[in-house]
Amino acid sequence: MRRVYLDNNATTPVLPEVFEAMRPYFGERFGNASSIHHHGQESRAAVERARESVAALLGSRASEIVFTSGGTEADNLALAGLVTAGDHVITSSIEHHAVLNTGRHLEEAGCDVTYVPVDGRGLVDPDDVRRALRPNTKLISMMMANNETGVLQPVEEVGKVAAEADVFFHTDAVQAAGKVPIDVTRIGCDLLSISGHKMHAPQGIGALHVRQGTRIQPLLYGGRHERSRRAGTENVPGIVALGKAADLAVQGFEHGDDKNTAALRDRVESGILAQVDEAGVNGDGAPRVPNTTSVYFDHIDGEALVIALDLKGLAISTGSACSSGAIEPSHVLTAMGLRADRARASIRFSMGKQSTVEDVDFALALVVEAVARLRELSPLYKKAAISN
Amino acid sequence: MPNPRTLAVAMSGGVDSSTVAAMLRAEGHNVIGLTMQLWNQRRLAGHEGMPESVHGRCCSLDDVYDARRVAEHIGIPYYVVNHEERFEREVVRPFVQEYLSGRTPIPCSLCNNHLKFDQLLIVARQIGAEQVATGHYARVEFDEARGRWLLMRPADRRKDQTYFLFGLTQEQLSYTLFPLGNMTKPEVRELARQHGLALAEKPDSQEICFVPGGDYKRFIDAYLADRGDALPDTAGELVTTSGEVIGEHGGIHNFTVGQRKGLGVATGSPLYVIQISGADKQVIVGGEESLYSRTLRVSRVNLIAVDELREPMRVSVKIRHRHEPAAAVIEKIDSAVTTHSGESGDAEILVTFDQPQRAITPGQAAVFYDGDIVVGGGWIV
């Protein structure tokens, strides 16, 4: 069966160049980057080169990059590493669970957390952030791009709010890195999280930009790795891969890869809207990353659509999965004010660097057919048809 | 293999449904495994009397894990579908409401009617399955002479689950397969072993899947507390069958018809709960002889083997899951009694037993059998 993968916001395939770059570090270059001998020096050099590459992607300095096990750890380190009992934190209602649930944990630990809302397009109003400020506000954490809708938050304006109020600013850029150019200075953030596997490096590697002079408490205690900000022997192959993926992302922007991706995304959207009635794009009208679109199809269950498409060879997704693998109602779409049935009727397409026009056309044909079948067998659709 | 078909299997993570999936796969069908996520077992964790973690129960992560392992082992695609919201609305809330109204509900039948053979069937057909197979012990067959789908008791009488399936419609039955209908439980376990299923020795589930430990009173308390609702005050009087008030009780939901223990009164002869009156919150008690009754009425009737009950019919009737069907006559109650129009679900049926039956319990189902054939059934009022 032909299989097409348009779920790159869940994870991306490791690009061949990235895999080649990391491969020696599983075998012949196996050294511990902390060792003083030849093998250690070889690994240390590779880690530091990768750190420079990641810094270049983010407009950061190499000394400001802390490698982590992924985006979740980076988010945890940013929040829990900075905030202590009695502090106030401002974040948004549409953050990834890595931030939301860290926020809940901090609340239990004696912090106050404000979750600012979003409008119908999925955008935070920076004035809401400003209004949420309190004398004890320590940190604002606002995602750069949303994983479900791809909507880009006004992080530069939020950065200004943070600077004026002299509070720390963290942005979860996991879904933005490699998709749109990032410059920590322009954003004005003190902390910024990225994840390797969302940008064609493997799972299990991520990084946190920590602006020089920002003192964070480590989550893990042990050796003095990563300037005592993250103990544990470095994941050298993963770090090398993240460095390579960062290089490729930078080159991609120079070659206009993001514009090609946007063209694929637009092809998905216009194809669906032209061929399917009672469908629409969530977050339409807001600035978005080029690779993501969230589409609703009224009167269907997005969960059944995802399964039907998977059985036909198309991998897409909806909402976020809970621990059993079942799909939970999307907190993001609900926060945008979508009706519950429309939130349930939404699916997400997300393109990667490997995605092609053929992939998109294959997907479109399957989606149009599957939506028709689902509606034909949907009691909701029949009910709506009768009442019309 | 002459005719491979696309079949969905409702997989619970237990031996029965796992074996069904393995059997159908071995027969060469395109099998899709589906598990319904119905209830978050951790939701009430931490409330008084509720366990912190629940193992080996329906909808627990362990069961999903087991089902997924089976799917992987036999090489079929497998998905978990989330029906928590509907399960709460159609099964859990009515379950709590029934107890608070003085009845003794059967959530499994509601789940079959509203979830397993409704929502799951819709999803299965939407994703391209021709039929849905389950691990129930029952048989389904099309009867040419009647032109109807029949639900029948299985070969293994001890495992008979037809009592919980009386609500299935003709359309639902036409899309349903019960591959275990002609097998006994030991045979199923043996087949599971032959297919190399690691869970072949997994114990059967016995209790209501969302009520850990079977303590429904604690569940009701915890559920209402979780929703921020106060437990309604259903305390009232303990009254004898002759109308004498002999004490107080703490709430009608603590009682079920036929119950002897926990009445909180001491009398010379043993007392049983004879009736629970939701309207005036009375629990009526009496001697064992008062528990017996020859008649009952059912509402929300579903007929399977016949399209209508035109004249009285001799059947045997089961009034609870563990009840030996008893000879009876069923007849439609004069339609002037019913207030709603036409639909079969509105008409009530009167059941008259040859011999009085013990502890006829409102909220339970009465299911009518003609030999092995399920004629239909309804809810005892």
List the helices and strands and how they pair.
The complex is a heterodimer of chains A (388) and B (381).
Chain A: E1 4-5, H1 16-22, H2 38-58, E2 65-68, H3 71-80, E3 88-92, H4 97-108, E4 112-116, H5 126-132, E5 137-141, H6 155-165, E6 168-172, H7 184-187, E7 191-195, E8 206-210, H8 236-255, H9 257-275, E9 279-282, E10 292-297, H10 302-312, E11 314-315, E12 320-321, E13 327-328, H11 331-335, H12 340-344, E14 346-350, H13 357-376, H14 379-387
Parallel strand pairs in A: 1-11, 3-4, 3-5, 5-6, 6-7
Antiparallel strand pairs in A: 2-8, 7-8, 9-10, 10-14, 12-13
Chain B: E1 6-10, H1 15-26, E2 30-37, H2 61-74, E3 78-82, H3 84-100, H4 107-126, E4 131-133, E5 139-143, E6 148-152, H5 170-174, E7 176-177, H6 185-194, H7 216-227, E8 236-240, E9 245-249, E10 272-277, E11 282-286, E12 292-303, E13 313-318, E14 326-332, E15 349-358, E16 365-370, E17 373-380
Parallel strand pairs in B: 1-2, 1-4, 2-3, 4-7, 8-11
Antiparallel strand pairs in B: 5-6, 8-9, 10-11, 12-15, 12-17, 13-14, 13-16, 14-15, 16-17
Helix pairs in contact in B: 1-2, 1-6, 3-4
State the largest interface: A-B, 20 and 20 residues
Structural class of chain A: alpha/beta
The Cα radius of gyration of chain A reads 21 Å
Question: Widest sheet of chain A: strand order?
Answer: 2-8-7-6-5-3-4
Instruction: Please write the string of helix (H) and strand (E) elements of chain B.
Output: EHEHEHHEEEHEHHEEEEEEEEEE
CATH architecture of the largest domain in chain B: 3-Layer(aba) Sandwich
Count of DSSP helices of chain A? 14
Shape of chain A: globular
Strand content of chain B: 25-35%
Describe this structure in words.
The complex is a heterodimer of chains A (about 400) and B (about 375). Chain A is an alpha/beta fold. Helices cover about 40% and strands about 15% of the residues of chain A. Chain A is built from 14 helices and 14 strands. In chain A, the strands form 4 sheets. Chain A has a 7-stranded mixed beta sheet, sandwiched between helices. Chain A has a 3-stranded antiparallel beta sheet with strand order 9-10-14. In chain A, helix 6 links the parallel strand 5 (about 135-140) and strand 6 (about 170). Chain A starts with a strand and ends with a helix. The model of chain A has no long low-confidence stretch (mean pLDDT about 95). Chain B is of the alpha/beta class. Chain B folds into 3 domains: about 5-135 and about 180-215, HUPs (Rossmann fold, 3-Layer(aba) Sandwich), CATH 3.40.50; about 235-285, Roll (SH3 type barrels); about 290-380, Translation factors (Elongation Factor Tu (Ef-tu), domain 3), CATH 2.40.30. In chain B, about 25% of the residues lie in helices and about 25% in strands. Chain B has 7 helices and 17 strands. Chain B has helices at about 15-25, 60-75, 85-100, 105-125, 170-175, 185-195, 215-225, and strands spanning about 5-10, 30-35, 80, 130-135, 140-145, 150, 175, 235-240, 245-250, 270-275, 280-285, 290-305, 315-320, 325-330, 350-360, 365-370, 375-380. Chain B has a 6-stranded antiparallel β-barrel with strand order 12-15-14-13-16-17. Chain B has a 5-stranded parallel beta sheet with strand order 3-2-1-4-7, sandwiched between helices. The interface between A and B is medium-sized, with 20 and 20 residues.
